[in-house]
Design brief:
384 residues; alpha/beta; Aminopeptidase; 6-stranded mixed β-sheet
């Protein structure tokens, strides 16, 4: 199920994409040695994939304990039904009675194995935290300051099987039909799996597949929709357990397309969360435009399928953890909507910077202003 000849037979010599810039760390074989050079980040294994590969998390910032008494958010919410209050969605039994001093943010990469731009930006962030400069040597003082004031959990690939199966580390200037075949795969009878119709085949059958697309783990499962199955994949169980151990304020799920950026908000997300994500999307897009980068949509009203009830892994992450769950589609750089690897890295790092700035000012938890929360935390105790 990993026959690269079905790709090269149709598209010829693709050796151009075997080369990558030194700063473009994406494939597990390149990244694992890099993690060993980190002096401040803690790298841990949080689970193993269907194919038996380690799922890694790189952590920065001290973990502040919560005095929570349960890990079941929605049982807690249901424990009080009157008076009706849509803002009463942060029960102390789940979130703890004491507010943490630092926002907690997860950066989750490569749910679809070859969608690497967010992974690359997150790994460059590790170097920025430790040295103030990315892997190109470019300085990011504001981003370093914001990141050092945050508890950050970086997962390079939640779908490490698909990432390890990826033949090339980037798609910059790659014709879209090539990238699509790498991503979606091909059956042994020559039939190409096509987005989005391929989502009706779950799992992709390994025994009849010539090249298993990078969208899937080794069991052929698109982890985007695995959470709703009675027997979940090990990757899904791993993220659920890890995210509950952190109970982050925000989870950023990196994907790649033409660079449509943040959103749309999940159909089943509470209103406050939908508004918060939409406001954050506008802030990120405005920053990218100010920096002269090509930014995607900020309104989702005309998208096909909008209004259709649906739920994906990013919304499931909210239901498990109560975090503001942010879907961000960074550019893949394909020829039809070309961006260089340099431009894509800048876009990823600027997006992270704006998300962290938002976390430290407006706050990722709806209905509260983090600047005000920090002042309360820093205030001296009131005298009796």
């Amino acid at each position: 199920m990993n026959d690269l000849s079905v790709i090269t037979r149709e598209f010829g010599d693709l050796s151009e994409w075997e080369k990558r810039p030194d700063f473009w760390l994406a494939l597990p074989r390149d990244v694992v040695p890099f993690t060993r050079t980190l002096k401040e980040g803690t790298t841990r294994v949080i689970g193993r994939s269907a194919g038996g590969r380690d799922i890694l998390a790189i952590e920065y910032g001290e973990k502040e304990p919560l005095d929570a008494t349960t890990d079941n958010l929605h049982s807690c919410i249901a424990s009080s039904i009157v008076p009706p209050d849509p803002t009463a969605i942060f029960p102390a039994a789940f979130f703890g009675t004491k507010r943490r001093r630092k926002p907690v943010v997860v950066l989750q990469g490569a749910l679809h194995g070859s969608e690497f731009t967010g992974t690359v930006a997150s790994l460059n962030l590790c170097r920025i935290i430790e040295t103030g400069r990315d892997l190109r040597g470019k300085a990011w003082p504001r981003l370093q300051e914001l990141a050092r004031a945050t508890r950050l959990c970086i997962i390079p690939w939640i779908n490490v099987d698909g990432a390890d199966r990826t033949p090339w580390a980037h798609h910059s200037n790659m014709p879209h039909p090539v990238a699509e075949l790498i991503t979606q795969g091909m059956a042994k009878d020559g039939r190409k799996y096509k987005y989005p119709a391929v989502k009706a085949i779950c799992p992709i059958p390994p025994d009849t597949t010539a090249f298993m697309g990078t969208y899937y783990n080794d069991a052929g499962v698109n982890l985007q929709y695995d959470f709703c199955m009675p027997e979940r994949q090990p990757e899904t169980v791993a993220w659920m357990k890890y995210y509950l151990s952190e109970k982050p304020d925000g989870i950023v799920c990196w994907h790649c397309n033409a660079g449509s950026l943040i959103g749309p908000p999940g159909y089943y997300m509470p209103p406050g969360y939908q508004i918060e994500e939409a406001r954050l999307a506008g802030a990120v897009r405005a920053r990218l435009l100010r920096e002269g980068l090509r930014a995607g949509r900020v309104s989702w009203a005309g998208l096909p399928g909008m209004g259709k009830p649906g739920i994906e892994q990013i919304t499931a992450a909210f239901f498990v953890t109560g975090a503001l769950s942010i879907l961000c589609e960074l550019p893949s750089g394909c020829r039809e909507w070309y961006m260089s690897c340099d431009e894509m890295l800048d876009m990823g790092l600027l997006t992270i910077e704006e998300i962290l700035f938002y976390a430290h000012t407006d706050g990722l938890r709806p209905y509260e202003l983090w600047e005000k929360v920090r002042k309360q935390l820093d205030a001296p105790p009131r005298k009796a």
